[in-house]
Amino acid sequence: PFLSRLLGLFLFKMGFVQTRVKKAKSRNLITVLYFHNPSAELFAGCVRWLIDNKYIFISVQELYDILSNRDVPPVGAVCLTVDDGWRENLSNIIPVINNRRIPICFFISTGAVEDGVFWWSICARAERDGFDKSISIKKFKTIAESERARRVDEMRKKIALDREAMTKEEIVEISKNIFVTIGSHTVNHACINQCTDKELAYE
What is the pTM for the complete model shown? Predict the structure, then answer.
């Protein structure tokens, strides 16, 4: 977090941020920002910055309509999305969008909803605890999907983690929110470049 803040401050002071804002508002551009598991402070700060800089929030449906109809987007259009389906999104993101009344789309990995955890968390715990010296998240992104899934399933039997993904009930509940859209983010959050055609169809 410290290094990220330092990098952000550097980019801001050097004028990169201001340049990008001007570019986004001088052309028919749409800014799409995606999050994973931001803290409440980070997400609220990003939204506040966008509002202060007069960005116009659009939903994924509006984004789709603009692209499909080749319409001119509003100046400073921005679309917010969130990947994976982290449970902390419920407390860190939902209150902000409700308060600010802005649209957002959650792209959910359904396998984690059923299992409760994401595969890389299992891998990280196994790597940390010395479960297998050949295990690393980086390596698991380079092997065949079937092999990755098999090895994660083996580790899952020996490693217990608290739930980190939303439940089905929680997803159903937020789907009723007028500011929320739910989208697909595959089943197993597979590394799709390592999948067969059959595995891709399933995901």
Answer: 0.88
Structure tokens at 94: 């939902």
What does the pLDDT look like over 85-109, one tens digit per residue? 999 999 999 999 999 999 999 999 9
Question: Is 62 within 8 Å of 86 (Cβ atoms)?
Answer: no
Nearest Cα to 96, choosing from 144, 51, 163, 127? 51
